[in-house]
Every structure is written in structure tokens, then in C-alpha cells.
Amino acid sequence: MIVFPLLFVLAGAGCTGRPSSRPAGERPVVTVRPEVVVLDTAGTVKGYETCTYTLKVAADGTYTVAVSSENTGFVFVVRDADGNNVTDETYPSWTGELKKGTYTVTLGLMRNAARKDRNAVPYTVEVKRQ
Q1: pTM (predicted TM-score)
Q2: Please, what's the b/e burial string for 46-55 (b: 16 or more CB within 10 A of its CB; e: otherwise)?
Q3: Predicted confidence band at 24 (pLDDT cuts at 50, 70, 90)?
Q4: What is the dihedral of CA 81, 57, 90, 36, to 10 degrees?
Q5: Which among 102, 105, 103, 104 has a CA at the least distance from the CA of 90?
């Protein structure tokens, strides 16, 4: 049996996620098996604020990032450790190959949506290995 450990961290002043019983600053570590969800969380963004999730991919593979929000101006970008875009601004999902390494998934609103909607916009995000 192969186990794929992944690390994810929620960062960004503007986002809120599910409550956690972890002490402040402690990073959650998730161990997953193939074809299992590696990140499944919900939160909100407001205006020009963004939320960034850091994923440490322990094995090469095909991954899907899926985001849902009622706001049609919601987008996300996947970047590698050097800050290069793996995806362009995308919604609602992306599937592609990720090599072993660290990536970020940044979620937020397009500029026109951020100007129009100053209220907190709820979203869900799921990252899973295929």
C-alpha cells in the first residue's frame, strides 16, 4: 500500500475556514491514499482579499482542484514553488499533472466582482488525487 502525505496550510488575512482545534500556528498534516480527497474545506473571501492554500505534493500524479461559489466572478490559480502559474485564472475546476513538490492554490474574486461585492463570498474548495 502506498501512502501519499500532503501538507496544506491556510493563509491570508481575508479568508475564513472551518474552525480548528489546533493551537495557533500549528500546521495540519493530512495523510491520504490514492483517489482520496486531500483538501476539502470551505471559507469566505471579501472584496480584494484572497485565500492561499499551500499543498506539498509527495508523489507525481494527476490532481483535480474544484471550487464552487455562487459568485460567478470567483477564480483560482495554481502556482509552483517558484511562483510560476500552473493554471491561468480558472473556475470551476482544473485537472492536470503535478510533480512532487510544493504548490499554492490562491482563491479570490476577479476585479469587477471584488468591486461590486464587498460582502463575504462563501466558497468551497476540494483538491483530490485521481
Answers
A1: 0.74
A2: bbebbbbbbb
A3: very low
A4: -170
A5: 105
